[in-house]
Prior knowledge:
Number of strands: 13
Structural class: alpha+beta
Strand content: 5-15%
Helix content: 40-55%
CATH class: Mainly Alpha
Oligomer: single chain
Number of domains: 1
Radius of gyration: 22 Å
Amino acid sequence: MSRVKEVSTSRLQNYLDFRQDPIAFFLRMLHEGDIVSLRTGFQPTYVVNSPDFVREILVTKDAFFKKGRTDKVLRRTITNGLLTARKEDHKHQRSYYQPIFYKERLQHYARTIVEETNRLKESLEKSASCVIDDEMMQLTLQIIAKVMFATDVEERKKQLADAVSDTIEQTAQTLYTPVILPMAIPTKGNNIHKQAIDTLEDMIYGVIKEAKENPEPYKMTMVGLLLDTVSSGGKPITDEEIRDQMMTMLLAGHETSANLVTWIFYALSKNPEVEKRFHEEIDNIDLEASPFDLYSKLSYTQQIIKEGLRMYPPAWLIYRESEGEVELLGETFKKGSTFMICTYAMHRNEAYFSQPEVFNPDRFAEESGEEHPNFAYVPFGGGSRSCIGSRFAMMETTLILAMLGKTFTFSLEDTPSVLPDPLVSLRVKDGLKMNVQKRK
């Protein structure tokens, strides 16, 4: 019996539902079958709900797939960075990117995370409330600029954060439209997008120029590493390629962490028992003394993060497109078939997670006894294109949560509802204003 099921609703209805509310659409598809055919005609499109098929697509048959539509859209901004590079080019780029996340560098980054979070703490002490997603966006932008580019963007962080936000919003809008218009066409969206790219490139090329003229301060950064890197042809990589990697880091390296921290503070405000245990753990540790050595000891905090990644995965949707005919677990799919893996929906499947709508960090405790099939939980993707910075992301999120949580509690303003906004990364729709209260 085939594990591919056809959805009963029409092609037009599926498209309208997807455009109107992608999250609701994928939750509706969750129990339609292991692989759900959307009956899209010439170029078949499928929703993948089974961990077995996720493993086939991301790992076992990885060579048969490309990123497809997301690749085309992201290339408008990143060009040929690690997120968009293909096949051997991606393999080469990943090999020279890897040392950025070696232990000795992470130790260096940890101190910067502490320093920048302390600066935010000083600012929040003067505030009764804040738009927490804005604060996190600016904090993680400052962190990524310091640790990867050795530059302080304090004076321009709002401008740069807005440019990143504009880029991501325009990318998401393009991703959901039937036709991708060239950037040269002067639509309102394209003009906003190009202006945002210009703002980011102004900072990026300025950093590259400074690093060439005075390399010493950049030795422990991504820029310094890339300036010492040679291409697959044996020549130094170009400024344009360094630009692509820096743009990749700006878009993928701070937006995702900011959104995750925002969602976790929201979850803590709704779950006082979890928040109490969180405070008990962080109150007994001095992260400023040795942040890298101590962050991994915060086991319950990391359970909270894993549960945050389950319920609110920043990478909420994974696209793949088959480059030729491919067989997956006995099912044959034609060339050009598109597969959509919605981690947000999969992580809420009661077949794999008990009470999936409950924020329960204990499900990730070693002694919990709750087992999840491989590839039922994929917050960082899987296979050759899994997130290369996952260890940095876990460290950064742990330190930010612990340092802010040690000083403050964040509670919800009178907000009628808090909804996900599924752009390139999973944001809080319309922002999240929270009360800031200093802990006694």
